[in-house]
Amino acid sequence: MSEKLLVPDIGEFEKVEVIELLVKTGDQINLNDPVVTIESDKSSVEIPSTVSGKIKSVNVKVGDKVSKGDLLLNIESSKNAPAEKVIPKDTESIIKEAEVVLKIEKKKNSEEQPIKNQKQKITQATNKKDIDPLETQDWVDSMSAVLKKDGKHRAQYLIKELIDYSYKEGSDLVLSRNTPYINTISPETETKSKGDQNIERRIRSLIRWNAAAMVVRANKKFPELGGHIGTFASAATLYDVGMNHFWRAKNNKFGGDLVYFQGHSAPGIYARAFLEGRLDEKQLDSFRQEVKQGGLSSYPHPWLMPNFWQFPTVSMGLGPMLAIYQARYMKYLINRGLIKDEGRKVWAFLGDGEMDEPESLGAIGLATRENLDNLIFVVNCNLQRLDGPVRGNGKIIQELEGIFRGAGWNVIKVIWGSYWDSLLANDKTGHLVKVMNETVDGEYQAMKARDGLYVREKFFGKYPETKKLISSLSDKDIWRLNRGGHDPHKVYAAYDKAMKNQGSPTVIIAKTIKGYGMGKTGESVNTSHQTKKLDVDDLLYYRDRFDVPLTDQQVKNIEYFKPNEKSPEIKYIKERRMNLGGFLPERTTYAKSIKAPSKDIFDFMKASTGEKEMSTTMAMVRMFTNLLRDKNISPRLVPIIPDEARTFGMEGFFQKIGIYAHEGQKYEPEDSAQLSSYKEEKSGQVLEEGINEAGAMSSWIAAATAYTNHDIEMIPIYIFYSMFGFQRVGDLAWAAGDSQARGFLIGATAGRTTLAGEGLQHQDGHSHLIASTIPNCVSYDPTFHYELAVIFREGLRRMHEKNENVFYYITTMNENYSHPAMPKNQNCEEGILKGMYKIKEFNKYKKTKIQLLGSGTILREMMAAAEILQNDYQIDSDVWSVTSFNELRKDGMEVERYNLLNPGKEQKVSFVEQCLEKTEGPIMAASDYMRMNSDQIRPYTNKSFYSLGTDGFGRSDTRKNLRKFFEVDKEHLVAYGLSVLAKEQLIASKYAKEAIKKYNIDGSKPIPTKL
Ligand SMILES: Cc1ncc(C[n+]2csc(CCOP(=O)(O)OP(=O)(O)O)c2C)c(N)n1
Ligand SMILES: [Mg+2]
User: Fold this and answer.
1) pLDDT of residue 86
2) Could you give the C-alpha distances from 805 to 291, 313, 541, 711, in angstroms and in order?
3) Is the distance from the beta carbon of residue 147 to the nearest atom of ligand 1 less than 6 Å?
4) Residue 104: what pLDDT?
5) Exposure of 165 by Cβ count < 10 A (0-12 exposed, 13-18 middle, 19+ buried)?
6) Which atom of ligand 1 is nearest to the CA of 262?
């Protein structure tokens, strides 16, 4: 049957140019195969075939302008397979998913058992708000009956119904997101650990000791080194239970759980590795002495300990975000079929003070939306941060419970240790829970800084009922009443429950004591955080507190303690880890590299675009479209966009590779009839992160380190508004460097004067400078499409084929202009990559010459200025395209350093000097960035050097006016050029004066930084 393939609905565009024919007459094509590429002035997009069959005729050619409904191809369609009858992939997966959900629901329902044996009864003591306690009791009894008969889900349903009803009847009181200040898991429902508690306690004590000894020894030797004891002291049990029973290591059978350790608990992690035989005493003694090889880094830094640490976490707030996006990315890889679903988990350990960072809580909604049941947060609530209490007058645990529960997380509070169980069981009047609820964190902290007597009086002494409750307990017994986070049974039960939770992320909020066991100097006192020296008495106390088998003399010598290899402790610790697949943390990679695409895939970018004008952003999108045709590269590309795909002309990707959505697309998009309609898919490739640069950057880091965390090399490309890139998420970019991320960051709509109408907060004139602060970030500011192609291909080769641990920052612009062909000069490619090459020479007059360096869009102003200088002033020039002042500076710095450190040896020559030393005339450089950008190379040439740039706040106007304002338009460049030559006494100053007058330049105008 003969079919006609017409141009589909392409939105608001008409007369769009055909730029590529992807098929020819006689070709056999399948449904959805791309047949032609069309390009508007903003974006390019492939048109897919809507039928399968053999092409009878192609009715368009490259250069034709087409609109909706125009004929593209005549196709002899294959019989028996009309496209309409095939159930679209999406529908299929929606049906499948619905079936799975139904099954889960069924399972859930059948699992729902009436609560029979749970004895825990929470009675809240009466208070003034209860105007009718008898009525209250009636309701409580009814609820109790429901719980017994029909279980907790039915009970919750009824409560919800009642609340809904009360709203309907006019009540506007909001349902509380809080439960009483007790453990979420009742003692009766706790899963018990099968571990040997005695031996685990001994091991934990040794780890505690060695961690403290390591910090104290380092500071005894060099008091300036610093370090923390109090944090790990509070978190030791939280880590140990995970290490002994839950966290599975990566090995050849399993991908491994991913654990984000709280940054300054690093000493404890080293101390465990010491017992495991992974680190030796010498290494412990080089804690925080990282300059010499083999030192232990102060905090988790993969850059400094690349075989050990996986995640840099110590800049507070980054860990929580990175962990959320890591868990999300893990699901992305699974849903795209790139890794297996092995039930791996992402664990993140966070401080309660750290939770105040907006980043810590900023992405918790995403974790719920995306059903990240592979994510477990553990918030160590020791109630203190650095200076003092986290919430002296309130309760951080309750606050966090409300926030996380409100966001839909599974919340598990671990507040009280097992010693409290019987007291709570005997709290018939509810007064104990009442005191627990009423006591604020400042009081809880103070109690643990004092003693049992103080707790008896201040806490239990508050009501006669609570006083009576502990009447048979000694002060020592009261002191022993432990917090949940220090009780391995409670922690085990919480972890077990978290592991089994389905459909939502879990947060375990554990109450602990800062500086646990450190005694008067460091336990629960406001200065706990900074305690890094312990005197002999403190150390003896610490030894006794944890029964560390060391003599007084050994304690005085601050000796480490490691039982011999055959001891039950060492055997146990190793056996536990072997059962869990190996040691942790450990950073390895078994990812296969990706072969860089052949050069010809970029060939079209080496030809001139002729009359056709386009921006470098558009050239980049064309390049990506081509890369998506490369079988090796295509599945590995991860385009990441913070709600700006249309800004960058990338909406064509929506249909082509789909937007990742773990639930697929449950709705018919408004624009479904259009070619670039919004298509969400479970196997979608694009990460549309919403207006969320920090989240997008976190996704990028997850993808850029997938080679180590998931053993699969990926090519993430995060495209953002350049102003909302580095300056917005600078600390994450730094963490990316530490993490040895590999991938591309594209600062689009770049430049202070190139993004015309958007104004002060949108116009970026410094992102390259920020990029230059990250040692392994390679950055470029290309002007022409062939430069972009050369840079991008080299990036693919270096990062993903050769596995170099660098990442690329490339700026692209939205100014349309035609692009010349790549110069034939052999050194051009090398120059593009090293940072500069000669793009044009003006040699007509051979009298006076100037070297003109331009970067980004300002290169074109420079080329135009060179022409004016030649034509109107008989000045010759060499024009250099500077693709990267940053790369030139790196090279210059290295060469200068070498030369200074090697006097008398053959001196090296910087690339800048190799390019410029034999040239004539002074140098004038300009870019669309601050002068500091081009100033970077000033020291690496012996010639006179003048910088121009866009220092100051941006503002909206036309490009022409902006360039005039910042004095980087061709007229200013001519005037400045003549002035430079006059200053160098190469021409008379009258020419400069004349030009300044001619171009209406006001010499008395204040510098733009003051405007
Ligand atoms: C972004 C950032 N700001 C400040 C610090 C300095 N700092 C390190 S630890 C700390 C206190 C941490 O308190 P908390 O999160 O409660 O952890 P704890 O040690 O109590 O477990 C501070 C302010 C940091 N590491 N990162
Ligand atoms: Mg804290």
Assistant:
1) 46
2) 20, 19, 47, 15
3) no
4) 57
5) exposed
6) 21
Tell me how far apart the alpha carbons of residues 507 and 779 are, in angstroms, rounded to a whole number: 39
Distance 650 CA to ligand 1 centre (A): 40
CA angle 735, 737, 738 (to 5 degrees): 65
pLDDT score, position 95: 53
pLDDT tens digits, 881-894: 999 999 999 999 99
**How many helices (H) and strands (E) in the chain?**
37, 28
The phi-psi region of residue 691 (left if phi > 0; otherwise alpha if psi is between -120 and 50; otherwise beta) is: beta
pLDDT, one tens digit per residue, over 191-246 is: 999 999 999 999 999 999 999 999 999 888 898 888 888 999 999 999 999 999 99
Q: Which two tokens stand for residue 245?
A: 């029973």
Using H for helix, E for strand and C for coil, what is the string for 480-501?
A: HCCEHHHCHHHHHHHHHHHHHC
**What is the mean pLDDT of the segment spanning 19-32?**
91
Which ligand gives the minimal distance to the CA of 265? 1
Cβ atoms of residues 950 and 930 within 8 Å: yes
End-to-end CA distance of the chain: 70
CB 250 near ligand 1, within 6 Å: no
Q: Verify whether ligand 1 is closer than 6 Å to residue 354 (CB atom).
A: yes
Q: How far apart are CA 515 and CA 542, in angstroms?
A: 11
Q: Provide CB contacts within 8 A for 593, sequence distance 6+.
A: 713, 800, 801, 802, 803
Look over the chain and give the mean of its residue pLDDT values, rounded to a whole number: 93
Q: Which atom of ligand 1 is nearest to the CA of 314?
A: 25
**Residue 222 alpha carbon to ligand 1 centre in Å:** 23
Going 112 to 114 to 119 to 120, the CA torsion angle's sign is: positive
Give the model confidence (pLDDT) of 77-93 as tens digits: 876 544 444 444 454 55
769 in contact with ligand 1, CB cutoff 6 A: no
- Is residue 118 scored above 60 in pLDDT? no
Alpha helices in 843-938 (DSSP H): 858-873, 885-901, 911-916, 931-935
391 CB under 6 A from ligand 1?
A: no
Quote the ligand 1 centre to 356 CA distance (angstroms): 10
- Cβ of 264 closer than 6 Å to ligand 1, yes or no, is yes
197-221 and 266-275 helices, crossing angle to 10°: 120
Q: What is the pLDDT of residue 664?
A: 97
- CA-atom Rg of the chain in angstroms: 34
The pTM score is 0.92
Residues 566/238, Cβ–Cβ less than 8 Å: no
Substitution site in 385, 523, 732 for ligand 1 pocket (most atoms within 8 Å of beta carbon): 385
- Tell me what percent of the residues of the chain surpass a pLDDT of 70: 95
Q: CA-to-CA distance for 716 and 164, rounded, in angstroms?
A: 46
d(CA 381, CA 509) in angstroms, rounded, equals 7
Residues 514 and 235: their CA atoms lie apart, in Å, by 8
Q: How many C-beta atoms surround the C-beta of residue 224 within 10 A?
A: 7
